Amino acid sequence: MTEKKTMQDIRQLSDEELVNVMEALGQPSFRTKQLHQWLWQKGASGFSEMTNLSTSLREQLTDAYSFNSIVPDTIQNSVDGTIKSRWKLFDGKMIESVLIPVVDENRFTVCVSSQVGCSLNCAFCATGKLGYSRNLEVYEIFEQFHLVNQQCESTFFHPLTNIVFMGMGEPLLNYKNVLKAIEKITSPEGYGWSPRRITLSTVGIAKMIHKLAEDDVKFNLALSLHAADDEKRNKIMPINQSNTLEVLIDALEDFYLKTKGKISFEYIAFNGFNDTFKDADNLIRLCKRFPVKVNIIEYNPVEGVEYSKSTEDQINRFAKYLTDHNVLATVRRSRGKDIDAACGQLANKASLS
Q: Tell me: domain 10-64, CATH 1.10.150.530, correct?
């Protein structure tokens, strides 16, 4: 029995390739524009939805290309409004997205994944336990945004306002596809979003941060810092051994000078590990080279991980100490405490089931 060949997803075609395909089918240029709108504005999940294309054209496209769409596998709803979605990919692998609403501020943020699993093995992260499987395609990143936007509108009667690349995987290790997905979301021919509503979070890969600067990107950048000295950061984030804090700060300064983009430090507070005033002094020193905001994050505990969250009082003292020393600092309280809110937790459950 001959194995059925998996057809290429039409959203893997470049804009130029899409034009060539439609010309080969004898279609006028406005049909190509209509098809592009279905793919990257309306987020179609099949050719049958493209009602302003002729039946014969839709049949031709169906015979030649597929839609390897992500589909919901598990949805978890928290009492605080947070919604966690586990998506099943065409090859059976799982990824996660999280909708984080702050209703009283009209702020609705989606946290999207960029890879299946992750290779960087940070000591506190559930995703690292999965290992690395593959990069996400442009359309798989885009679909997370599109589907969670629909989820947001149906649940809160409001579209998404922000995107953060803080889900599964390291975005800078899937550089091309992540930037292409952002291009689709920000393009006037796509969703037309301002790139300033998008934040890319990285554990810190200096050469790729320099590349972001060279490419003059317009979105914001967050460094998953979590420790402000090399000894501690080496312990919890192996990437720091080849990308030391000095090297990273140089790269971030380059990013700021070339793009003027906003930079933030993500700092999970671990009890007795990185939440002392000495740690705060180290952090203050890192904040002197360029404008930076520090987001102190309450840890969502992960089973089998030795680190635990700092007490609320200690987090507040740490934040006040930073503020008293002229560092812009905010505390992000844990969301979705009653569900598998930590990045990778829900996908881990799928891998164990």
A: yes
